[in-house]
Amino acid sequence: MISIRARLFLILTAATGAIWLSAFLWIQHSTRVEVERVLDARLAEAARMVASLVAEHRIEPGAASAIPAAPSVFSADHDYARQISCQIWQFDGALLGRSRGAPVAKLTEAAGEGFSESMVEGEPWRVYTVADPAAGVRVMVGDRLTVRQRLARDVRTGLVLPALLVLPALAGLIWLALARGLAPLDRFTAGLEARGPAELTPLAATPAPREIAPLAEAVNGLIGRVAAARRAERDFIAYAAHELKTPLAGLKAQAQIAARAPDAATRDRALARLEGGVSRTDRLVTQLLDLARVEAEDAPRPEPPAPLNRLAREVAQDLDHLARARDVRLRVGAGGGTPVREHQLLLQTALRNLVENAIQASPAGAVVEIGFVETGRETRVEVSDRGAGFSESDAGQGEGRFRRGSGAGYVGSGLGLSIVRTAAGRMGAGFVLARRADGPGTVASLSLPAGAPGADPSA
Amino acid sequence: MRILIVEDDELLQDGLAVGLRLAGFVPEVVGTLADAGQALSSGAFDAVVLDVMLPDGSGLDFLRGLRTRGARTPVLVLTALDGLGDRIAGLDTGADDYLGKPFELDELAARLRAILRRGDGRARAELVWNGLALDPARMVGSRGGAEVAFSRKEFVILHALMQHPTAILSRAALEERVYGWQEEVESNAVEVHVHKLRAKLGAGFIETVRGAGYRLAAEEGAG
Questions:
Q1: Domains (ranges, CATH) in chain A?
Q2: Which residue numbers delimit the Histidine kinase domain (chain A) (predicted)?
Q3: In this structure, are B199 and B143 located in the same domain?
Q4: A173 three-class SS
Q5: What span, in angstroms and rounded, lies between the C-alpha atoms of A285 and B223?
Q6: What are the chain B neighbours of A234 within 8 Å (beta carbons)?
Q7: Strand partners, A380
Q8: Quick one: pLDDT band at residue A413, thresholds 50, 70, 90?
Q9: Looking only at Cα atoms, what is the longest distance across chain B?
C-alpha cells in the first residue's frame, strides 16, 4: 500500500506538471501563430513598398544595388539579420534586381499574387508576390522558413528552461507542505507507537483535526474494548485464584490431619475427605475453564447442525456418574429435534452447568429432567430438579460470581450460573431461573429464539 | 480454649474443626454470619477464626460491627484475599491477626495461642502456677524437670483453670469448654478428668469450691 504522503506527492506533482505542460503548449502555439502573422505582415508590407518604389520610378529596375537592405527589426550582427530577401522580375522572365544575399533562383514559381511557399536552393521559403502590370514587374519578398522555426524554437527554449529549473523546486515545496499538512497524523501515530501494551487509557483529549477525529474515536473505542477485556481477564484470574484457594486450604488441612492423626479412624476420615475434596476441586477447575472458554468465544462458527436433543443427551451421559454418585436419576424428555447450527459448545457448556447444579441440589432418589419446549417463536431447553431451590436472596445473587447458594447440600460455587449467563449472552439466548409450580424445586430454562444464531427451526 | 470458626466451605470447616481439636482447642463451626452472631451472643468464645467471603455478607463488615458493639474477643481473619491491601484492611478493621489461605494448621494454632496469650496479658508461652509450667503448644506440663503428659480433655480443663488461676470455674463452664456442641457430654466427665489431674499433679493442686466449681490452690509461699 503506497503511503498517503507519496500518493499526495505524486498527485500534486503530476497535476502541477500537467498544468505547466498545457500552459507551455498553449504559449508555444499562440507564439508561433503570432510570429507567423507578424512576419507575414512584414513580408507583404516590404513587397508593397518595393513595388511602389518601382512604380513611381524612384529606382531604376536593373540597378539592384540601389535596393536598400531589407528592413530588419534586428541588429546586423544578429542571427536574424538578412532575414528577408527581395527579387524584382520582369513579366518576360528577366531578373531586374535582387537584394544583397538574395538567391539568384526565382523565389517562387507561383504565377499569382499573395503568399506562397516554395523550395529555393534546397531551402523552404515563404514568399509574398506583388505584380505591377503597369510597370511590367513582379516583386517577390520572402524569408527562410528555417529562420521562422528557429525563432519559434528559441521562444520554446525560453519557456522550457525556467520550467525545468522551477519544477524541482516546486516538488520540494510540495513535499514540505505535505509534511506540514500531515503533521497531525504523524503526531497521532507517534502517540500510538509510544504506548506500552498495558497503557490502555484513551488517546489524549486534544481536539484532533476533523479528518482524524473519527479515526481517533474508533481507536479510543477499540482501546476501551481491549481495556474492558483485560479487566475482565484480570478479574477472572483474581477470582479463579481466590475461588481455588479455599478448597486448597481445605485439602491442605485434611492432608495435615491425615499426617498427624493420632488414630486410624481420624486418618481414614481425613483421607476420604481429601479424595472428595480433590474431585470437587477438579469440578471447580473444569468450571473455571468453562468460564474462560465461554468468555473467549465470540464469533460464531458454522458447525454441522446437530439436533438439540442429541446435544442434551451427550451432556446427560457425561454427568451420569455424578448423578449416580448422588443417587439422582437423569431423564431427557421427548422432542428437541431442532437443529443447532452454531455455538454448540456454548450450549452444551451451559446445559452441563445447569444439570450439574440441578444434581447437586437434588435430594437422593430424585429425578433431574431435561425437557424441550418448541413453539413457533422459540425453542426452550428446561432443566428441572426437586431440590430445595433458591432463596430470595440467592435469586438476585445467583448471577454474581462471588456468591454461593446457601441451601443445604448445595456444594460447589456460584460459578455455574455465572457460566450459564455468560454463555446465554454469547449465544443470544434467554436464561430464566424459576421455582417449580408443582412443589419444591427449580426450573432453569434456556430459550433459543427462532432465527437466532443458535437454532434454526425452519431447516 | 473455645474457638468459633466462621467458614462456609464444608471441607475447610471440617479440616479446621478436626485440626484445631487435635491441637488442643475446642472448636465450634458455623457457616454463616447470622449463625456466628447467634453463637457469639449465646456462648463464651476465647477467639474467632473468621472467613471474609461468606454467603450472607463480608466477614470484615461483621468484624466491624462486632468491634463497634465493644466485643473484645480476639479475631483471626482467615481468607483467600491475602494481598497486602487486604491484610492491612483486615487488621485495621479490628482483626488481631490475619492468615491467608491455604495455611499450615500448626501456624494457625500458634497464632491463635499467641492472640489468646496477649488477650490474657501474658507474654510467656507457658502458663505457670505452683511450680507447674504448662506448654499449650505441646499440651504437656513440666514440674521440677519432669515432664507431665495430659490427655486432650485433661489439658483443656487444666488450661482453662491456669488461664485465670484465682477464678472459680463452674462444672457447666468447664463442660462447655471440654465438649463442643456436637459432642455428647458424659455425666461426671469433668469430675473424672479433675480426679485424673489430681492424681498427676497432687491432690491439692485443684480445689473444689462446694456449690460453685473448681479453682487452683493458692501458690505456696504466697499465703
A1: 1-57+83-192 (no CATH), 204-296 (1.10.287.130), 301-400+413-451 (3.30.565.10)
A2: 239-452
A3: yes
A4: helix
A5: 65
A6: none
A7: A373, A447
A8: very low
A9: 55
Helix, strand, coil content of chain A in percent (nearest 5) = 50, 15, 30
- CB of A335 within 8 Å of a chain B CB? The answer is no
The answer to whether residue B81 neighbours chain A at the CB level (below 8 Å) is yes
B223 is a domain residue: no
The pLDDT score that the predictor gives to residue B104 is 92
A403: contact with B, CB 8 A cutoff: yes
Which of B5, B6, B7, B12 best probes binding to A when mutated, by most A CB atoms within 10 angstroms?
B12
Q: Are residues B212 and B171 in the same domain?
A: yes
Nearest to B110 by CA among B25, B26, B12: B25
Indicate the average pLDDT of chain A: 79
> If you count residue pairs, one on A and one on B, with CB atoms under 8 Å apart, how many are there?
87
- Judge if B42 and B89 occupy the same domain: yes
Check whether A38 has a pLDDT greater than 50.
yes
CB distance A253–B15 less than 8 Å?
A: yes
Domain span holding position B162: 127-216
pTM of structure: 0.56
pLDDT above 60: residue A403: no
Same domain? For B85 and B181 the reply is no
**CB of A249 less than 8 A from some CB of B:** yes
Alpha-carbon distance A366 to A357, whole Å? 14
pLDDT top residue among B121 and A66: B121
Looking at the fold, whether B182 and B112 belong to one and the same domain comes out as no
Angle at A329 between CA A327 and CA A331, to 5 degrees: 170
Q: Are B140 and B162 contained in the same domain?
A: yes
ipTM: 0.77
Binned at pLDDT 50, 70 and 90, residue B108 comes out as very high
Q: What is the pLDDT of residues A169-185, one digit of tens each?
A: 888 999 999 888 888 88
Helix (H, G, I), strand (E, B) or coil at A208: coil
Q: Are the Cβ atoms of B12 and A270 closer than 8 angstroms?
A: no
